[in-house]
Amino acid sequence: DGATSEGDFHEALNLAAVWKLPVLFVVENNAYGLSTPVGEQYACRDLADRGAGYGIPGEIVDGNDLLAVVAAVTKAAERARRGEGPTLLEFKTFRMRGHEEASGTAYVPRHLFEEWAAKDPVVRFEATLHQRGVLRAGDIDRLRAALKVMIDSLVDEALAAPLPESTAERELADVFAPSPPAPAPPLVEVTPATTEMRYVDAIRDGLREALRLHPRLVVLGQDIAEYGGVFKVTEGFVEEFGKKRIRNTPIIESGAVGAALGLALDGFPAMVEMQFGDFITCGFNQVVNNLAKTHYRWGAAVPVVIRAPVGGGVGAGPFHSQNVESWFTSVAGLKGVAPATPSDAKGLLLAAVEDGNPVLYLEHKLLYRSSKEQVPAGPHRVPLGVARLARAGRDATIVTYGVGVSWAMEAAARFAEKGREIEVIDLRTLMPWDRGMVLASVRRTGRVLVLHEAPLTGGFGGELAAVIGREVFESLDAPVMRLGGLDTPIPFSKALEAIFSAQGRVDEALEDLLKY
Question: Is the pLDDT of residue 254 over 90?
């Protein structure tokens, strides 16, 4: 009953009702959300009344009557199997002990224990069995004695079990499901045909390839079906793949991610399109506590990709322009990529779908229609966790990702005219990032600038700088430098956004770095 106050409860019922899913929503209403009575949890008379608001049946059931529970569940299950959608079942019951052992029951009025003790479901069912001649005198005592021996034995076994033994290596190995091996290269190397594509078209092409290669892949999101998404990535997909695979959701980020998790656990790889990366906050709990931790907890693979349009440069303001990577880079069990080029946008997307783990795919809105290049046709893949040497150099290294790569490449070209060669490393994958390539580059050049669009304080660049400073300290000719956006929200005004952005400060940062 207490959990029905959560927004996830609303989102789940709403989605199940709209899609007519075969789901039974079971509320064990024991009158207290830990210590808070239901009168302070909701204002409606009964939680079952909420069913009407979602267009589904809501039924109140005596939760202490075993046969009534069986009958209600059977009726709701039969309705679901007929394709008539979900049912909300509210089982009225009571908790004779605390929410858990530590909380106790001092907050519960004593008379309630007396009233509900008379409704004990075990005693009531025993009486029914006696009345129907199923049990005879003495059967209950014999059953209880036998069950007590069995339960005591199991408890003793559990208490005597040794504490788990492990190693750091074994624990780390449990975080992710094994990724499938890369496809074997052809016996005869053939240069794939390429087509010039914009970044947004490459994402569309990669998603189309994924849907063709993986017939069970389902894509969820707001306005992604006939409308094609706000950035038109899925335009035309309904005609090719159908509405069962390209599914509009209500405005429910948490519900969409939760549905994707359920699909993935049932053998259907899933992709969720966040309309804007900023909106992922509304599904944060599902991402960090459910998607990311499921394999570690249960050993189940979770093939879910969340596509999130991020970044500034398009005058979209503080709620539609944020870079969200640092919110997630400390979450064990979640992978993350940030493609900087159309070719990588396609290749990383297909690799993410096939990885078998939850992957956050950060696509930059400014690059959608401003970045073009030749993109390989067919099932092009870029392996996760492998960075790219975007430009070789000897005087300093810029480590960056996403839109920062184009800034770095432009700056490197300007510095080349002055006789200074700047190496640019495109991380491509943020979780896990390619330490080997980054550290090797810094050892060669002796200087490094870590660059990202997100605000400097608390940005992912701090992690990169810390590792570089520790691992290659003896090779450094200058302190590790970082450059990011101002510690402000991203403004609407293009003029103010230019002040926020690190783009206009890259040359100055390189000049300072090269003074050493």
Answer: yes
Q: Torsions phi, psi of 505, nearest 5?
A: -115, 5
Q: What are residue 24's DSSP bridge partners?
A: 87
Active site residues: 320
pLDDT surpasses 80 at 476 = yes
Cα distances (Å, whole numbers) of residue 277 to 123, 207, 211, 227, 284: 54, 18, 22, 19, 11
Residue type for position 512:
D
Q: State pTM to two decimals.
A: 0.94
Where do we find the tokens 């779908």?
353
Q: What string of DSSP letters covers 95-115?
A: -SS-SSTTT-STTS-HHHHHH
Query: Which uninterrupted H or E stretch holds 272?
Result: strand 270-273
CA 4 vs CA 38, 63, 286, 432: distances in Å:
11, 17, 16, 37
Helices (H) and strands (E) in the chain, counts: 18, 19
* Per-residue pLDDT tens digits for 119-161: 999 999 999 999 999 998 899 999 999 999 999 999 999 999 9
Sequence-ordered list of residues with C-beta below 8 angstroms from that of 138, at least 6 positions apart, any chain: none
**DSSP label at residue 6:** S
The b-or-e profile of 309-330 (16+ CB within 10 A means b, else e) is: bbbbbbebbeebbbbbbbbbbe
Contact 116, 86 (CB under 8 A): no
pLDDT at 190: 72
